[in-house]
Automatic annotation (TrEMBL):
This is 3-oxoacyl-[acyl-carrier protein] reductase. It comes from the Bacteria. InterPro entries: NAD(P)-bd_dom_sf, SDR, SDR_fam. Belongs to the short-chain dehydrogenases/reductases (SDR) family.
Length: 262
């Protein structure tokens, strides 16, 4: 299938590693021009070099901090200056530390809300008018399966990513008539450093060996394994594609069947 992504301009947040990198690589493999972002300059350079060496799409990079002052304004201006605009925006952020709902510190909540929610909404608001004006655009927001089935001991993540679900659905209805889609991609247990950290935290909390915790986690997934970053990236690329133009306002799971709701 031709995804119609050749020469499309994609801005992918938090894309030096993990899920963001997986989506960026999948977009570039389809011929897109990708702008990588993150805080780790060395990782960004390495990722861009590897993408460019494959000779399909092109990759550039810029260091940014989602929690930094004027993050959205500066990044939007940079993307316009370097790429001439943005056709595809992939909103992806890191996750907060594990913890219970009853133990949420309001100061921590507000700081995480700035990085995980406000920055995403601000950046999207700055870029989506140009998408609407040209009659084509894709906004893909990576969140968590915790939106549909809250994950124990991830209260902050469940809370903040849930806020993005309401925003995404509302925005999708506002811009669908302009040829712009807005979807969310919900990972389950995809093998990343973040999942390794969560498994380690669970092992410590439960007082069990890490391998036992991982084995139990795999048994709870109908696919009986963790997902691959490449599998997740492929789903993301499709949702950003031309053939996916009639998919909007949706939350798509990539979880091996882990979420049991219909």
């Amino acid at each position: 299938m031709d995804l119609g992504l050749k020469d499309r301009r994609a801005l992918v947040l938090a894309s030096s590693r993990g899920l963001g990198r997986g989506i960026a690589e999948a977009l570039a493999a389809e011929g897109a021009r990708v702008m990588l972002t993150g805080r780790d300059e060395a990782a960004l350079k390495d990722t861009a070099a590897q993408i460019n060496a494959r000779g399909a799409g092109q990759a550039d990079w810029v260091t940014v901090d989602l929690a930094g002052p004027d993050f959205a304004a500066k990044l939007a201006d940079h993307a316009r200056a370097q790429m001439g605009g943005v056709d595809i925006l992939v909103n992806n952020t890191g996750g907060p530390k594990p913890g219970a709902a009853r133990d949420i510190d309001v100061a921590v909540l507000m700081a995480q809300a700035q990085a995980m929610v406000a920055s995403v909404i601000d950046l999207t608001g700055r870029l989506i008018p140009d998408m609407c004006a040209q009659g084509w655009g894709r906004v893909l927001t990576v969140a968590s399966s915790g939106i549909e089935q809250p994950i124990p001991n991830l209260a902050l993540s469940n809370t903040l990513r849930g806020a993005l679900a309401g925003w995404n659905k509302t925005l999708a209805s506002e811009v669908a008539g302009d040829g712009v889609t807005c979807n969310m991609l919900l990972p389950g247990r995809v093998q990343t450093n973040r999942v390794d950290q969560l498994d380690s935290a669970a092992a410590e909390k439960q007082g069990k060996p890490l391998d036992d915790v991982r084995a139990a986690s795999r048994r709870s997934i109908p696919a009986k394994r963790y997902g691959k970053i490449e599998e997740f990236g492929a789903v993301g690329a499709f949702l950003c594609s031309d053939p996916a133009g009639y998919v909007t306002g949706s939350m798509v799971r990539c979880d091996g069947g882990m979420i049991r709701s219909v």
